[in-house]
Amino acid sequence: MRATLLHQAGDVRVADVADPKVEQPTDAVVRIVLGCICGSDLWPYKSQPPAEHPRQMGQFLGVVEETGPQVFTVKVGDLVVAPFTYSDGTCEYCRAGLHTSCEHGGPWGVNGVDGGQGQAARVPYADGTLVRLPVSEDSELLPDLLTLSDVLCTGYHAARTAGVQQGESVTVVGDGAVGLSAVIAARLLGAERIILMGRHTARTDLGRAFGATDVVATRGQEGVAAVRELTGGRGTPRVLECVGLKDALVQAAGVVREGGTISRVGAPQYPEVPLGFPEFLRNITLTGGVAPARAYIRELMPHILDGSIRPGRMFDRTVALDDVAEGYRLMNDREALKVIVRP
Asked: Into which CATH architecture does domain 153-288 fall?
């Protein structure tokens, strides 16, 4: 089969790899219908050193083509979505809803496990990993449902861990796909005012469509001052940091209210947390982390199925598998917000 391989920073290729097959009784083989390029894929795309064994990439949804004898929750012919890590669904961490810490799980594309930007994938622990989608392969909701593999659940994780409640005010730092997902999530949890900090008009316009009530296009201290002006000088009790850069976290600290909570879900690209004694004196709580997407899929799916949210609008480009390198370039150069890869 054909699959996406990352050889080193900036070097993405599509090549022939071994066809997936059931290797363990808990495995399934899934024919990929849609894959996507995630913002987190851009970090290794920018930084990975040359690799002797290039890694496969990506998240996906697809159709089950084969199952092992110990797979019971999905069957051949089911349309399924796979979160960005596989998990057994039974260990202590999975039972607690922390599937990304699964004792037997891991990420796609390494250690002999296929990635999602290809024609098919072997899925370890299929019962614990895959979630059946109650739509057909030609459903117009497929791009929306694909966001359940990662980005929508990541935005929701930000809002949930921050403790967003009915009627509250929230600031979202970042207008990328995670930030826009956080806007959707904050609205789902009942936030009354959602301030989106971003400077890309097309993205912040989409953020308004998703539920943002205000947009602050400035950064740094100017941006902090603008948010505080909107909130009577106090800031907001919940701040969702969806970028992962030091400046974004510093900005989040500037706009959070005394006694408030910052949830950071952008993959941190800084060696130390730039919060210290001033934030300690303000009783600021810092939470967040990598999203256990598998824990949220069933909770979020009904909102997609009934049409109350349409997160698939974030996908503004679709590329064929053989053109996946162009998809990476588009996202890396900020010419695309989020890219679908169609095998």
From this structure: 3-Layer(aba) Sandwich (3.40)
Residue type, 269: Q
Question: Which residues face 14 on adjacent strands?
Answer: 4
Phi, psi of 264 (to 5 degrees): -110, 125
Structure tokens given for 211: 């539920």
Residue found under tokens 């930007």: 117
One CATH from 3.10.129.10, 3.40.50.2300, 3.90.180.10, 3.20.10.10 for 2-150+292-342: 3.90.180.10
> By percentage, how much of the chain surpasses pLDDT 70?
100
* Cα maximum dimension of the chain: 61
What local confidence, expressed as pLDDT, does residue 83 receive? 96
Range name among 156-170, 214-228, 270-284 with the lowest pLDDT average: 270-284
Encode burial over 10-47: b for 16+ CB neighbours within 10 A, e otherwise.
Answer: eebebeebeebebeeebbbbbbbbbbbbbbbbeebbee
Q: Would you state the pLDDT for residue 114?
A: 94
Q: Between the CA atoms of 37, 39, 41 and 47, what dihedral angle is there, to the nearest 10 degrees?
A: 140
- C-alpha–C-alpha distance, residues 31 and 119, integer Å: 6
Q: What per-residue confidence (pLDDT) applies to 158?
A: 98
- Please classify residue 237 by burial: count the beta carbons closer than 10 Å to its beta carbon, then call 0-12 exposed, 13-18 middle and 19+ buried: buried
- Distances in whole angstroms, Cα of residue 191 to Cα of each of 6, 167, 171, 178: 40, 5, 10, 17
Task: Report d(CA 62, CA 260) in Å as an integer.
Answer: 41
pLDDT of 38:
87
Question: Given this model, what pLDDT does residue 118 score?
Answer: 95
